[in-house]
Amino acid sequence: MRKLILLFLLLPVFSHSLWAQQATTSVDICVYGGSSAGVMAAYTAKKAGKSVILIEPGKHLGGLTTGGLGYTDIGNKYAITGLARDYYRRIGKHYGKFEQWIFEPHVAENLFKEYISKGNVQVLYSYRLSSVKKQGTTIQEIVIENSDKPSSATNRVIKAKMFMDCTYEGDLMAKAGVSYFVGREDNKLYNETYNGVQLLNKHQFLDGIDPYKVPGKPESGLLWGISPAALPPTGSGDKKVQTYNFRICLTSDPSNQIPITKPEGYDPEKYELLLRVMEKEPTRPFNLIMKPDLMPNNKTDINNNGPFSTDMIGMNYDYPEADYARRAQIQKEHELYTKGFLYFVGNDPRVPEHLRTEMKRWGYPKDEYTDNGNWSPQMYVREARRMIGAYVMTQANCQGKETVKDGVGMAAYTMDSHNCQRIVIEKDGVKMVKNEGDVQIGGFPPYPIAYRSLIPKESECGNLLVPVCLSATHIAYGSIRMEPVFMVLAQSSALAASLAIDSKQTVQKIDVQKLQQWLKTNPLMDNSPADILVDDQDKVHTVLTGNWKSEHNPGGSYGPSWLADDSQGKEKKAVRFVPEVITAGKYAVYMYFPKVKNAASETTITITNGKEVKALTIKEADIRVEGQTAGEWVLLGEYSFPKGKSSYVEISNANANGSIIADAVLFVPKQG
How far is 355 from 654, CA to CA, in rounded Å? Predict the structure, then answer.
């Protein structure tokens, strides 16, 4: 009888052990986080011949790219390569263009699902990290739990040779014992000037806006959202995190609208500072209290704009290192704040009528986020943990003062930090509210991102890559942290993981030159012929007639420069772009046209394949530039080119009545 009782008591243990074995998955590469980076990493790894699992704690793929940021932050299209560029071309195909950087959330997510389907990638939704098991510097396995109903009974074990952390938070990196930083480094640490505390003038209150509930009476207390903290010295480091928000998708189409209603817990006192802004600027327009960038089909990507907007400043400090419950609470607070902000602008009688009228035009779209109450499930986590890896990207990299040789991707965006705190300062004896932390410093060309910034120190972990929470200072990360760049770095990281597996080495020991060559020769991971780009800086493949002015980083160029002529045809000048065609065949030919002041109304172009010659005239008025870019690829037609260097595209200043810009020509092979 005792034996039977003992057997009965042990049965659950045996069954659990058996289930645990059944719930163990072994793969070559485990990708944690279904962000845009995660999808591209998993697809790349699978196309490289590796077994892969992609784990997404939520129910959707694409992270912020599908979560509302449809008005893509680019910086310079030159920096976007490989599968990331392919992604925006496929978006373009959906909307009938060559490339498209502005898109609806559901269109973006459907495309990520296509990559998953095309790559036959195994995706595990609604599972999140519970623990990490390491042996020495090697991650052996991770345990994941159900995100909706955590229970040890449904935990799963993932064993892999290589792991990739593609989350915005860096949870896998942290649990693996890898060093990281949260907040802002002191300028002195890496010899920077724009890190740390910065009280500047962007998204800033005008002088004199009273911070107290009863104006002029400090004893009444501070208005909601204002910190009592004193302003530290400029450039000093702290643990404050730049603000989060939601990129809001609304629609002006009445047939696709759900009204913006009062959210739970609505408190108009949270928005009192907006009224004080309007007292100073009663005619301040709608697009200066929020940034409603227009997207296809009457939709928006709304971002923060101005001193008091959709950024919930100072309310996210806990988030990077918080547990799942606290993070969910912070995200819910941000959601309710944002919905309340929209409702307040549209309905509070104290808000100027022109703002209420404009706000009433908009509503939540019925066809977006249909399983989440038509609201994005992805908060804009601009920055959380940042790895302190084998190499730390800094302001010097952004500004070209230090250039790495192991680049496996490029960045090109302004060093961009949103505000970190809202405080009270005293100026000329008057107490007033100010925002602190917003930095926007640009004016530099694209620059390489070190492979070493994607990997931990060798002493900490040898089989982990981190393309999102990569190793960079706060201010450098502000330039790198763009969705297309994350995709590029994810592709590079997945290939690096594959090389490490093949060579039986750690990620620190792979042949980086081999990785760089792989990225160059097989950018789409399908062995298709790569595009041929001839840029103005390519002295081997450009031939100049006449004296052209080379302008470095002029703003709007493709890459770091362009060639310019303002002589209006008084002296015959031309730039010949000569591709080196490796594979004979048909190519679609595009020329990059930046929008510039005093541009010639027409540009004369000649194209030849060595036998036939075709002359074209491109009208400046026909060039339409959209989104966060100042130039556009213009199709010159499709042509059959032989192997070799007998073909060319030539731009001249013939009959010019303004500036002629010679920047870049792209030859895109046609399949089939």
Answer: 50
